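Quick one:
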Amino acid sequence: MARPPAPRRRWYGVIALLLAVAAGAAGWLAARTTEPAEPAESVPDEASVDVGFLRDMADHHDQAVQLALIQLANGRDEVLKGFAVDTIASQRYEIGLMDARLQDWGVGRGAIDRQAMTWMGMPTPVSSMPGMASAEQLADVARARGADADRLFIQLLIAHHEGGIHMAEDAMRRAGNGRVRALAERIAKVQRLEVRDLLLAQARLEAVDNAAP
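Output:
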C-alpha cells in the first residue's frame, strides 16, 4: 500500500528551517560584502547603545522567529502562514547582519543570562525585554492548534513588535554608528507596518468568527 503523503505542516516546517538558516547566512554575508563602511569607523564600547541594541534586538528577533515557526506548525490561516514565512526570512536576515557586526567589533552576542536594556537605562533579563512573550505564553501558543493558534500568534507578535519598535526608535536616535541607526530605523518602520497588517488580520478573523452560526 502506498504511504500517505506527509502532512502539509511538516513541509512548512522543513522549508521554514531551511529558510531560517539561509536568511541568517545571507544577512551575515551582506554585512561583509554589500553594506557601505563608514569612514574611519571606530569600534563602539561594549556599554554603548550600538552594542546593546544589536545584542538585545538579535535576541528579541530570535523569539519572533520562534513564534513564526510555531505558527507554521500549528496555525490554520494561510495568510498568517505566509506572514510567518516573511517574519522568519526578514528577522533571520537581520540577525545575520547584527551578529556579523558584533563579531567585527569583537564583542559577540553576549550571554543569554546578561542584563539587557542597560543601554536604555532599564536593565532587565533578556526574557523580560519589552514585548517578549513569557514562558507561560510560549507554552500556551505551542499547545494551541488551528484558529486558537492563529489568534495567539497575532496577539503575541503584535506585543512583540511593539516592544521591538520601542527599542528601535530609541536606537535610531541615540546610536553612534550610522549603520546601526539605519538598521534601527528600518526595523521600526517595517514592524510598524507589520503591526498594521496583523491588526487587519485580527479584524478579519474576528469578522469570520462573528459571522459563524
